[in-house]
Write a structure and sequence with these properties.
By secondary structure, this protein is an all-alpha fold. It has a domain at 1-24 and 42-73. The chain contains 3 helices and no strands. It has helices spanning 2-22, 43-70, 75-90. α1 runs antiparallel to α2 (43-70). The longest helix has 28 residues, at 43-70. The chain is elongated. It is found in: Cell membrane. One of its GO terms (molecular function) is protein-transporting ATPase activity. Its main location: membrane.
């Protein structure tokens, strides 16, 4: 359900961006292209449609955002938290000094470089 709401929010955002870009701040916008008086959908109706669609998409975005916050999945956080907690508990302390061998190898077991030929 959360994924569906997220996709609907994304679609509403894209449509809202497109509607706002079509509008002109001085009242022209898409309506300025329809100068003929014989148009079925005149200048005034185009402005009304763009304004109403802006308000509808803004309200839909608000409602979908509130609904999306109600459907946030909480079960997966506990799984991720326990995996991270396990890694932290099993981590090696970086401040610990490693134990290097302190005894020198015997001369009898060491091979000289010349005898390798």
């Amino acid at each position: 359900m959360y994924t569906l709401i997220t996709v609907l929010i994304f679609i509403a955002c894209v449509l809202l961006i497109l509607i706002v870009l079509v509008q002109n701040s001085k009242g022209g916008g898409l309506a300025s292209n329809f100068q003929s008086t014989n148009q079925v959908m005149g200048v005034r109706k185009t402005n009304d449609f763009l304004e109403k669609s802006t308000w509808v998409l803004a309200a839909a975005l608000l409602i979908l955002s509130v609904a999306g916050s109600a459907f946030i999945p909480h079960g997966s956080e506990q799984t991720n938290e326990s995996a991270i907690k396990d890694q932290v508990e099993q981590a090696v302390d970086p401040n610990a000094v490693p134990n290097f061998p302190t005894a020198t190898p015997d001369a009898a077991t060491a091979q000289p470089a010349d005898s390798a030929q």
